[in-house]
Amino acid sequence: MVVVAETADIPGSRRNPFTEPDELWEVFIAYLHGAPHRTGASFPLPPWQRVIVGRGSGKFGHKLPGKKGRSRELEIETDTIAGRELALTAHDDYVELEALSPKHKVRANGKRVVEITRIEDNAVVAVEGEMVLLLVKRSADMPAFEHFDPALMGPFGQANRLDLVGQSEAFCRLMDALVVAVATKMPILITGQSGVGKQLIAAAAHKLSRYATGPFVVENVSKLIASVAASQLFGHRARWPQHNDPFDPGWFGRARGGALLLDEFGDMQEPMRSMLLTALQEMKYTGADGAEEWPLDSLVLAATNVPTKLIRPDLRRRFHILHVPPFADRREDIPLLAAHIISEARMAEDRRAKELRNLPWVLEHVLMHPLEGNMRDLKEILLNGLLDIGTLKRGDGVVVAPPPNDDEANDDAVEITVRGLLHKHRGNQSAVERELGWTRSTLRAFMKRRGIEAK
After folding, report:
1. What residues pair up with 50 in beta bridges, in sequence order?
2. Is the pLDDT of residue 330 over 80?
3. Which CATH number fits the domain that encloses residue 245?
4. Which of the four pLDDT bands, split at 50, 70 and 90, describes residue 96?
5. Contact call for residues 176 and 147 (beta carbons, < 8 A)
6. Are 261 and 218 spatial neighbours (Cβ–Cβ below 8 Å)?
7. Is the pLDDT assigned to residue 205 strictly greater than 60?
8. Band of residue 392 on the pLDDT scale cut at 50, 70, 90
9. Positive or negative CA dihedral for 132, 27, 389, 362?
10. Quick one: pLDDT at residue 140?
11. Is 352 found in the same domain as 441?
């Protein structure tokens, strides 16, 4: 099955055919039943046109970032459409959503759609059991690279040749900024929130640099001890030779001809900062015992989640600063990142990935989750089932779900809890019953009535 769309002009619309809008609405596929390879594919919503989305035959297009002015783009080719699920009408500041399916529930941001509903930027639309969509308002110009080589992107939906995943505008800007940072031949300070993948960006910078064939050494500055920091950084000759190797090269020595990443750089104490500043200024360093002097022949990288204004100014000016955007600014990439995490876990024969249940529901709520820990939160939700299921959880962590009744709104809230617990317990209904305090017959009757499958 593929998802296809057909459009029709809205009678009496205010659309000006002689002007092109600066921004367009784009629909990204987070989940499509029977077509996991379509994850991350997208299609635009033409302004002031009603787009019918459903199942049918045809070729579904997706966009591929390319060089500016030479973007690679595949158009949607539709033969027939059947099983109409929903209608989307793009306006300037919002999209009108209408549920058309008589069989499947349609939800917008977790709430059941029973009439025409207005949704805004970053809305999550789900057709139960069929598809999960993310609506994003983005620049009318397709993401394009000015410096980054599009050939490094690799096949659609997969990690690129730098082992990075993404296709959003923020991701394209990051790739361009990465190429510029490496080209400066300066040390690079990588900033960003916890969990955004600063170490992955550092590894990508190493692969793009002239030191790509050398080692990639990662060291946490919290390991530095003030009294022996010079030995740790720059090496020393051991007082008592061990294993016929009397010389400890230190962090810089081990990274010679390659790249050295100083992780948690913002936590580096003042004496060590002065040592590093001297080495960066003179482009050479001396071992702690002063016996030998070595050229600084490596790419120096640093990573921190501390605001750059808190770092010593004269040291900060020695670095080219590269900021990694949080997931909140690149939500279009979350479906691809989720698919990549699940795929890697399955290749590693991780039991948690094999036992993943209710994937479309999980992805729907992942997209609505704030993901303040970025990649760490995403992995925890997908593989460990740690999904915050909202107000139905008491302060002590005990889930409180009222028994199901005929109240549709109450049952919608209870369904969120039940699905979350089934994901957490990998479909183990007995564990869900114990946590809810329900009988087996109550749980099974509710699951049957709401169309919830444990597998």
Report:
1. 8, 89
2. yes
3. 3.40.50.300
4. very high
5. yes
6. yes
7. yes
8. very low
9. positive
10. 75
11. yes
Could you tell me if residue 161 is inside a domain? Answer: no
Is 224 found in the same domain as 202? yes
Query: Of the ranges 89-98, 229-238, 348-357, which is most confident?
Result: 89-98
Domain range holding 125?
Answer: 2-143
What does the pLDDT read at residue 164? 93
pLDDT (tens digit, 9 = 90+) per residue, 288-312?
666 678 888 999 999 999 988 888 8
Domain match, 393 and 319 both = no
Residue 262 lies in a domain: yes
Could you tell me if residue 243 is inside a domain?
yes
Residue recorded with tokens 């028994």: 403
pLDDT at 401 over 70: no
Among 302, 327, 352, where does a domain finish? 327
396 in a structural domain: yes
What is the spatial distance between Cα 18 and Cα 8, in angstroms, rounded to a whole number?
18
| Pair 261, 378 in one domain | no
At which of 304, 327, 350 does a domain end?
327
Same domain flag for 31 and 119: yes
* Same-domain check for residues 342 and 309: no
Partners of 58 in the β-ladder: 78
Q: Which residues contact 151 (CB under 8 A, 6 or more apart)?
A: none
pLDDT at 342 over 70: yes
Which segment, 36-40, 81-85, 279-283, is predicted with the most confidence on average? 279-283
Question: In angstroms, what CA-CA distances link 351 with 56, 348, 382, 387?
Answer: 35, 9, 12, 18
Burial of 293 (0-12, 13-18, 19+ CB in 10 A): exposed
Q: What pTM, to 2 d.p., does this model score?
A: 0.79
- Give the count of alpha carbons within 13 A of 267, CB side only: 13
Q: For residue 15, what pLDDT is reported?
A: 53
Per this entry, what is the length of the chain?
A: 455
Distance CA 207, CA 210 (A): 8
